[in-house]
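Input sequence (92 aa), recorded before submission:
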Amino acid sequence: DTIDNDERERYLELLPDPDAALLEEMSRRYPAPFDTLPVQVRSPHCWRLFVKFCFFSGLPIAEGEMHYRVKSSVVGFSHLASSSSMAQQGEE
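Predicted structure, C-alpha cell format:
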C-alpha cells in the first residue's frame, strides 16, 4: 500500500496548480467545451483535487471524509456447504 501512496504522491506533484493561467490555457485549447462549463468551474478557487472515488456512485471522496472500503479478501459462505454439513449433522 505504501508503494501506491508513493506513486500517487509523485503523480500529484506532476499536476499543475489550478490557477487562472491553467484555466486560460484550457479555454484557449478547448474553447467550445470550456464555454459550456458552469461559471463556478471557471474559477480556480472552486477546484479541489480528489484522489479517492466511490466504487458505487463514482463520486469523489474528500480527504478525511468517512467512507467504507471493500476488503481485499472476502470470506464466503456457500449454501451448498451448509446443506451438506447439516446433512452430516443429521446423520450423527
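Checked by second reader. Residues 14 and 82 are 53 Å apart (CA to CA).
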